[in-house]
Amino acid sequence: MYRGSRLKLYREGNLKNLFGNSARQIESQINQKSESYILNVSEVEFAEFLIQSHIIDFPVLDFENVFVESYEKDIPAESFPGNYDVYRGKTYRRDVIVYHIPYTGDIYILGNQGVSSFSISGSIEVGVTEDSITTEIINFNSDPEKIKRDFEDSKRYILSDYHILKKDCEGFNNEVLDFAIGKIKERKQKLLSKNDLLSSLGVPLKKKVGVAETFSIPKPELRKKIKIEPKVYEKGFKPEPTLSNENYQEILKIINDVGKNFERMPSTYIGKGEEDLRDHILLILDPNFEFGSASGETFNKKGKTDILLKYDSDVVFIAECKFWAGKGVYLSTIDQLLGYLTFRNSKTSLVIFVRNKDMSNVITTISEVTETHPNYIRTEKKNGETWWNYIFHINDDRNREINLGVLAFHLPD
């Protein structure tokens, strides 16, 4: 005989409440963390850790592999068709056909009403086993065609709100990471504002002690690798100057425009070395940005091929210019660039000049080998065919993320 739990589809709960509870739990976990943790942790890695138990594993129903079984059951007379000679209040033995519909994912999500709309087409109660949902059809007439039609009717009810819920859950999954990052940033900004106020009082700050630095990780029922809570080893935090992302992207765009000009006017730049090309980029960059210390210090040189932007004594942007010499030199140039960095939220760039005839092969190599670097975290986006935006971390600390823009330009030999 069939046994299992029961689920009334699309009526037992509400996705709006489910999403709201997830948002409140994420925000609560953020607020439980110490000031030091929030000010030092990688926002993205902490957010990815927080949302892993809230990402919805939307169920996939496999109608291609439906199977049936049957068992006998006492059926009340009231459930029989009207043309049967049965007596009210009595039961009669009949075969019950059980359709098993395999599934993967969290089937209990289908017990909720959708957020965006609500179906009035009715619902159906299904049985739930470990790997399938079931619907039962009583065999009154031993008519296979009638049983098939009854199953098709059940299938329509099972799928009545399915795609509504799927769209809502996909929307939630696509937005929850940004929500968590936003809440982390929001709390961090409040802490920074508070610290600025307290510092302005001119007396030492007394820090709270005894605040837990970690919390236990609930056992999520996930089929993917579990993300472990990022650790923070630095207890202090000193706000440091940093370029806004808007200014950073503007700088990269100017470099990209200059590099494209190199490609459009090859005769002008033929035979030029790294330092000559670097200086031309500086020539265009310098008048576009009025950053710097009170003395008006703006873009300065460090070593032979670096471009630096400084604010007071802090470096807030650095670029390395190199001719392409294969993937080994490319990866070592990233190492060289990372070796300069000991500050928070660094904005950096690697400008590659390519004299190889096969530019497409170089583009493919950059795309493939960059992600193999041990400091690589993720790819943000790609602006055109030869402009990549990556997130790396500085040496020995995954919480210290840097932006690395890689731009490649094809120059004449």
Walkthrough of the structure:
The chain is α+β, with helices and mostly antiparallel strands and 413 residues long. Among the domains are: 60-104 and 124-159, no CATH class; 245-410, no CATH class. It is 35% helix and 24% strand. The protein has 10 helices and 15 strands. The strands form 3 sheets. Strands 9-10-11-12-15-14-13 form a 7-stranded mixed β-sheet, with helices on both faces. Strands 1, 3, 4, 5, 7 and 8 form a 6-stranded antiparallel β-sheet that branches. It is elongated, with a radius of gyration of 31 Å. The model is unreliable at 202-225, 292-298 and 300-304 (pLDDT under 50).
Order of helices and strands: EEHHHEEEEEEHHHHHEEEHEHEEE
Query: How much helicity do the residues have?
Result: 25-40%
Residue-averaged pLDDT: 81
Report on the biggest sheet: 7 strands, mixed
In angstroms, what separates the terminal alpha carbons?
80 Å
- Unreliable residue stretches: 202-225, 292-298, 300-304
| Total beta strand runs | 15
In angstroms, what is the radius of gyration?
31 Å
Structural class: alpha+beta
Shape: elongated
- In terms of DSSP E residues, the strand content is 15-25%
Q: Give me the side-by-side strand order of the main sheet.
A: 9-10-11-12-15-14-13
Topology:
Blueprint: E1 5-8, E2 13-14, H1 15-32, H2 35-40, H3 43-51, E3 60-61, E4 67-76, E5 91-104, E6 112-113, E7 125-128, E8 132-139, H4 144-158, H5 162-199, H6 245-264, H7 266-269, H8 274-285, E9 299-302, E10 306-311, E11 314-323, H9 327-339, E12 347-354, H10 359-369, E13 376-382, E14 387-393, E15 401-410
Parallel strand pairs: 2-6, 11-12, 12-15
Antiparallel strand pairs: 1-7, 3-5, 4-5, 5-8, 7-8, 9-10, 10-11, 13-14, 14-15
